[in-house]
Backbone:
């Protein structure tokens, strides 16, 4: 039974990761370059608003699945790896790597929050003003664009690090080594 539960939780965790990470790659490597070809600025900005909002929904569902499955995996780690026996959480590499993973996750979520709730909306606001013919300070627009890119690239890089740490946690012989 524990094997089936573990496999289902891993699958749900991976599905969540795919839903969270996939759109990030799409936005960075498909949408942003392709959107530059849309010459009509109001259309480009409207499409950007729609795509980023939907990314937020898909990414949010992904994060929810990650949290639910990750909690289940954490609660069952001792049963799965050690048959319910063993020393404390941080006596094994699993606990230490997990703590590092969660620290990187908090940093990544902080950057995501800054981008989602502050920098991204500010960038869209400036682009919409420009699209409607309002005068926009080009230096300020460039600064917000660079902030958005820096947050996006940093968040994606941290997400990839988190994925690598997660893969190491799922490796039995690596995870149960005593520290």
Residues:
């Amino acid at each position: 039974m524990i094997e089936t539960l573990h496999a289902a939780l891993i699958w749900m965790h991976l599905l969540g990761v795919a839903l969270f990470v996939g759109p990030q790659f799409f936005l960075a490597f498909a949408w942003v370059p392709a959107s530059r070809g849309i010459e009509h600025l109001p259309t480009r900005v409207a499409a950007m608003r729609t795509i980023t909002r939907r990314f937020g929904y898909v990414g949010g569902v992904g994060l929810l699945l990650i949290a639910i499955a990750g909690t289940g995996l954490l609660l069952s780690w001792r049963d799965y790896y050690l048959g319910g026996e063993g020393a404390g959480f941080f006596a094994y590499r699993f606990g230490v790597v997990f703590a590092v993973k969660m620290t990187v996750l908090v940093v990544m979520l902080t950057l995501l929050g800054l981008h989602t709730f502050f920098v991204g909306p500010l960038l869209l606001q400036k682009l919409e003003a420009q699209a409607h013919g309002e005068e926009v300070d080009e230096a300020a627009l460039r600064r917000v664009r660079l902030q958005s890119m820096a947050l996006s690239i940093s968040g994606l890089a941290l997400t990839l690090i988190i994925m690598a740490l997660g893969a190491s946690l799922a490796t039995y012989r690596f995870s149960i080594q005593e520290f």
Notes: Residues 2-175 form one domain. DSSP finds six helices and no strands in the chain. The two ends are 29 Å apart (CA to CA).
